[in-house]
Each structure stands twice: as structure tokens, then as C-alpha cells.
Amino acid sequence: MADQTPPESNFTEEYDIITDEDIAEIRDALEGGRLDEAASKILESLEDLENAQLDIAVTGESGSGKSSFVNAIRGLQDDDEGAAATGVVETTMEPTPYPHPKHPNVTMWDLPGIGTSEFQSHAYLERVGFSRYDFFILIASERFRANHAQLAREIQKMGKRFYFVRSKVDADLDAARRRRPASYSEQGVLTQIRDDCCRRLLAEGVASPTVFLLSSWELGSYDFLALEETLEKELPAHKRHAFLLALPNLSLSILQRKKEAMQRQIWKLAAISCGVAAVPIPGLSVVCDVTILVKTLSEYRQTFGLDDESLCKLAEKVGKPVEDIKEAIKSPLVKEISRDLVLKLLTKAGGGALMFIEYLASTVPVFGSMAAGGISFGTTYYMLRSFLDEVARDAHNVLIKAFETDYGVRASHAAGTGGKEKKGALVWMRHGGGMEGRRDEGGGEE
């Protein structure tokens, strides 16, 4: 890890050190002036965030792609261990939970199909245990029908949110391309699909419906990012954090938002490390719990998909040797996380940490009288922040290396983007057992 101390003049701007909300929390936690006494309160807050349970219900007619969506959102192929069973006939007879493989507090629930003629929404919701879910994804692969609308109205009546997803749009685009190769317009076909879905839902009494167009085989394309951003906005803060960290690393924008979410928790981790079971570190004026730091850095690596298991899966999907993918990784901690290496990084944090401590003492005056406690906090905070920056940069480079593309990037054709494509979202396409990325230079219609 490079020991680069930013110039004092732009330190606060470049590092966006800590928000006003964070400052208020720190002041409140340190009201008594002792970091060790505040640490238990901060630890409780952080544990509540890390353990926040998120339950997502996915339902629709048989064969609409419910189970494939459950797998894709968890970063799994249909034949991976732990994947939901898929098939052309209904394979889900009871609500079936599928915990995220790396974030078990996030569970996708594959619900029984709703395509029977005697369907009754109220009875269905009672049968599947309506109250346990945070929100519902209603999927259709062709048309939204009366059952979808009936279920949506019942969910709304019970005070929960739902989102319409039109699946398998890649198949529709492929069919349209074959039928009319000369006049084919991807954006035109997508607009037609979306308009037809909204028209049918309006006819069934659903007011102002929003429909997200997706493909479980090209999850990073079309409206997935718009759906993800909508969910982020509408979920409570602690649920939003859990949802974001559990998302597959499909795009550069998702990587950036994950970094921002983890960045907001660094001051809490630094305070806990310096205030709970902290021990002096020989040769450093720092007192901290190195075990907490090792655990935190390991979690950063896993969340960004830089652990060996995730890298091997990515290499398999893109059909490249894993060693080629690893060439994009520069941070030493991504390759090895150990107590000794953490201690070396704490030593290197020196100059930048002192500047941060001065800034913090001027913003939260109590730090100025905390002596060793303030130094320990500042050093730990600076080290965690520096490592997070490096890991996020490595994840960015790995995604580009995997697809041999730059910002290859096609974002969603989302409602509200006017059909325009934005840069920032890597196209993640699954063809057969492999994957490919492609570069879209124009940022407009294809």
C-alpha cells in the first residue's frame, strides 16, 4: 500500500473525510470524553446494521423466470450449488428461502406461481406468509395479467411495496432481430414492450405502473440498474445497506456505491477497534484490536468479489485463467490478509493519519484531549480508508480486465432515462457457460 499523504489544502475535499451526520453521531457517542466507554454504544449500532435481515419475495406465473432471477441476483448460475431449481413447469410448490451465499442476512424467497384460474390474491398472500417479506418482485415473461394486478392491489392494500419486472427481454430482442433484421431497433422494441406492459396493467386498474425490463442472462443490462437504484431509495437505511452489499458486482456504479456505503461505517470500526479489547502495539503509539481490523479487511475483500472463490467463479464465467484476472490486483491485502500485514499498514499510515487527527480534533474538539485514544482512532481510520480505496480500485480493474473493456458500459434502458444509455455499468452477458462484455461508445440508441 502506497503511503501517500494528500496536500493539506485539498485534504478534506479529496477524502470527503466524514459527513456532518457522522460528526453528530461521534459527538453524541463521545459525550463523556472516553473512547472506550463510547465503543460499546457504537458496536451495538454497527451490529444492528450488519445483522439487518432483508427478505425479498419473488412471484409470478410458472415459467416466467422467477427461479432464474433468484439465482442471478445472488450471483449464481442455475446449476450452481445452492441455486433455486428451474424448469419450464412450476418447480416451486411452497415458499422457499434462498439465503445469499456470502450475506446470509439477505434472503430471496421463491414463491409458488400465481397462474391458476382460481387464483385469489388474499388467500395466496396468507398462504405464503405475507408479513415476513420486505417487498415483492412480480415477474412476467410475456404479459402482465389480471392475477398480477390483483396481487399488486392486495399487496398495496396491506402496506407493502411491489415492483413489476418483465423478464426474458433478451429473447424478445433476439426474435425481433431475426424477424426484421433491416429495420430492427433495440430501443424501439424495448419501448414497445414497456408500453404494452403498462397499458395492460392500467387496464387492470393499477395506477401509474412502472415496469422494469430485465434478463437474468444479461442482468447488468436493460433496467436492472434502475431497479436497483429504486430499491435503494425506497428501502429503510439499514435494509438498503444489506441489499447493496449483497448485490452481484455487475457494474462500476454498483462498486462505487458499495465503497460509499462501507466508507460511512469506517469511523465506527475505528472507534470499536480502539475501544473494545484494545491492546498496545509495540513500536507504535497506537492501541487497537488487530483482530477486528483483520476481519474488516477480509469483509472488504469478499464484498468486492476479490476473494479466491469469487475470482475463480468470475474467471470461469468469462473463460479466462484466474491468474490473468488476478493481474489487475495491486493491493497486497487482497492477496494476503494477516495480522503482520495489518501491523505494517498501521505503521505506514503515519503522516496521513496525523493530518486526519488534526482535522478531526478541530471538528470534534473532544478528540484534542483524548491523547493516545485520538491517535489510535485516527491511525486506524486512515488505514481502513486507504485500504478501502485500494480494494475498490482493484475491483474496478478486475471487472474491466475480465471483459477486456474500458467503461464498457451500458446502463439500463430505464424508464426515466429516455431510452438513453449511460456510462458506468458493465454489460454482463451470460451465453452458454461463458460470459462476454462489450463496449458501447455512444451512450445513445444502438
Q: How are the SSEs ordered, and which strands pair?
A:
Blueprint (H helix, E strand, L loop, with lengths): L10 H5 L4 H10 L5 H16 L3 E7 L5 H8 L22 E4 L6 E5 L10 H8 L6 E6 L5 H12 L3 E6 L2 H11 L6 H18 L7 E3 L10 H11 L2 H10 L5 H12 L2 H10 L3 E2 L6 E2 L1 H14 L4 H11 L3 H5 L5 H4 L3 H10 L1 H14 L8 H32 L25 E3 L2 E3 L10
Parallel strand pairs: 1-3, 1-4, 4-5, 5-6
Antiparallel strand pairs: 2-3, 7-8, 9-10
Helix pairs in contact: 3-12, 7-8, 9-10, 11-19, 12-13, 12-19, 13-19, 18-19
The N- and C-terminal alpha carbons lie at a distance of 42 Å
Low-confidence stretches: 1-17, 406-446
The 3D shape can be described as: globular
Tell me the name of the CATH class of the largest domain. Answer: Alpha Beta
Please give the domain count.
Answer: 2
The major pleated sheet works out as: 6 strands, mixed
Give, in order, the helices and strands.
HHHEHEEHEHEHHEHHHHEEHHHHHHHEE
CATH architecture assignment of the largest domain: 3-Layer(aba) Sandwich
Radius of gyration: 24 Å
Describe the structure.
With 446 residues, the protein is of the alpha/beta class. It has 2 domains: 8-31 and 254-403, no CATH class; 52-248, Rossmann fold, CATH 3.40.50.300. The chain has 19 helices and 10 strands. The protein has helices at 11-15, 20-29, 35-50, 66-73, 121-128, 146-157, 169-179, 186-203, 224-234, 237-246, 252-263, 266-275, 290-303, 308-318, 322-326, 332-335, 339-348, 350-363, 372-403, and strands spanning 54-60, 96-99, 106-110, 135-140, 161-166, 211-213, 279-280, 287-288, 429-431, 434-436. It has a 6-stranded mixed beta sheet, sandwiched between helices. Helix 9 runs antiparallel to helix 10 (237-246) and helix 12 (266-275) crosses helix 19 (372-403). It starts with 10 loop residues before the first helix and ends in a 10-residue tail after the last strand. Mean pLDDT is 77; it is low at 1-17 and 406-446.
